[in-house]
Design goal:
The protein is of the alpha/beta class. Helix content is 50%, strand content 22%.
């Protein structure tokens, strides 16, 4: 159905099926057929036909506005899914205790950002217990804590600038319910 909406938008913006077909790199009969199928599916005429020109009906105006929103939403969704699949871009939701967020994260993030400018960070702070729970609930992708609790999560202990820390991570994969370890070594080896 989204393809039909794309065709519909092209017809509206180009005023004829022939011009829309040229823009879409298809044939005029294909465009006409898709518009007719869309009109049947919606149960209403979308255009008044005046010669070769197609003029929107009131229903067509409503469909036009909604179709534009649908396609914009689809593009945003595809962009978001692309970010999830590519660790070199997107947003890392990072949780941290107060001590690591003050003494560790500014340098780590600054060094990482130089090498990976398309990656953004959202940082939330709280106790180690809260960050561990948020990680288990998948509200954050990565947690830096000073006192890891015994959990089913795998924590790695390390020292950063004299501060004893532990980190654990999960990364969303785009597959519901499936997570994998986030490549934290990319962040840590940056400095």
């Amino acid at each position: 159905m989204l393809e039909a909406y794309e065709t519909f938008l092209a017809v509206v913006e180009n005023e004829t099926a022939s011009a829309a077909a040229e823009v879409l790199h298809t044939t005029q009969p294909t465009v006409t057929r898709q518009i007719q199928q869309l009109e049947r599916a919606l149960g209403t005429a979308l255009f008044d036909r005046v010669g070769k020109r197609l003029i929107l009906t009131r229903a067509g105006e409503r469909v036009y506005d909604t179709a534009r929103e649908l396609l914009q939403t689809q593009n945003r969704l595809l962009d978001a899914l692309s970010e999830l699949a590519d660790p070199e871009q997107g947003t890392v939701r990072l949780g941290s205790g107060v001590t690591p967020s003050i003494y560790l994260l500014p340098n780590v993030i600054a060094n990482y950002a130089v090498k990976h400018p398309a990656v953004r960070f959202q940082i939330v702070t709280g106790s180690s217990k809260v960050m561990t729970e948020r990680l288990k609930q998948r509200e954050i992708d990565l947690a830096f804590v000073t006192t890891p609790r015994t959990t089913s999560l795998h924590f790695v202990r390390c020292r950063f600038g004299g501060t004893s820390c532990a980190w654990s991570s999960l990364r969303r994969t785009g597959v519901p319910g499936r997570v994998v370890p986030y490549p934290i070594w990319r962040i840590c080896r940056s400095f």
